[in-house]
Specification:
Helix content: 25-40%
Oligomer: single chain
Strand order of the largest sheet: 6-9-8-7-10-11
CATH topology of the largest domain: Nucleotidyltransferase, domain 5
CATH architecture of the largest domain: 2-Layer Sandwich
Number of domains: 2
Radius of gyration: 19 Å
CATH class of the largest domain: Alpha Beta
Shape: globular
């Protein structure tokens, strides 16, 4: 079995694969834990999902937090007995990355692109990942990673609003009942929701018109993607895209090593 870890700025999103099948998913905080704390957490969450930690034969890490890579590597070695696979520059991705400096592309964005290209072959793609940041990636049907757009995510926007104003509170991030709010909380929720909705709509349309000649699929993923599922922004919503991409990257590099 493979334990795949997507390490974000606020959360670790994990999944357990047996072959191509995703058996279990979990989330934990990506704070300044020790390797022992991470190791015991992973073993505990595996057992809670009915998986014997001894069945984990591979561990793969996709991280946008460089400082955690060493700690998680040590947790893998100590608690599972092997070095993890790191999704980073120099590995086989199956993509032609057009960034001026390819190593600048976030590992999570590469994982998303690997999975989406495999799921929707011969399609031009706009991948929208709604996490701590909201990111857009343009991937051509030729598997060219053309680049993307990065903007503050919903939670960052909410926290900035609350911390930089005297009277505006932190609110639950939710789809509002109507555009014009009748309370301060409703008004903030509406502003957060509709500013993101219109940004996703406009940026996705701009990428499609400026970079693709035919119809492109817009794929939604990330923790907040479900919030916009009924808004008609996405052709597909694939919440587990990053985990599927990590697993696919492991398989690609196994094949590379065999050759």
């Amino acid at each position: 079995m493979l334990l795949a870890l997507d390490v974000g700025n606020t959360q670790i999103y994990g999944g357990v694969f047996k072959g191509d099948k995703l058996l279990a998913k979990f989330r934990g905080t990506s704070g300044s834990a020790t390797s022992d704390e991470f190791g015991t957490f992973f073993k505990g969450v595996l057992r809670e999902n009915g998986i014997d930690p001894k069945e984990i034969k591979e561990l793969a890490i996709c991280s946008v937090v460089p400082d955690l890579i060493y700690t998680l590597t040590q947790a893998s070695v100590k608690y599972f007995g092997f070095e993890p696979f790191l999704l980073q520059g120099g590995i086989k991705t199956g993509l032609n990355i057009k960034y001026k400096n390819p190593v600048e592309v976030g590992a999570d964005r590469i994982a998303n692109a690997i999975a989406a290209s495999a799921m929707f072959p011969e399609k031009d793609l706009v991948i929208v990942d709604l996490g701590t940041a909201t990111t857009f990636c343009a991937v051509s049907k030729k598997k060219e990673y053309l680049g993307g757009v990065i903007m503050p995510g919903l939670r960052i926007s909410m926290e900035a609003l609350a911390s930089r104003t005297a009277k505006l509170p932190r609110v639950e991030i939710a789809r509002p009942a109507e555009l014009v709010g009748r309370t301060t909380v409703d008004s903030i929720q509406s502003g957060l929701y509709y500013s993101s909705l219109l940004a996703i709509q406009g940026i996705s349309a701009g990428i499609k018109s400026d970079y693709f000649t035919g119809e492109a699929l817009v794929i939604g993923t990330g923790g907040f993607s479900k919030l916009f599922e009924a808004a008609g922004l996405f052709d597909r919503v694939v919440p587990d895209l990053v985990l599927l991409g990590i697993a696919a990257a492991v398989r690609l590099n196994k094949e590379k090593d065999k050759k």
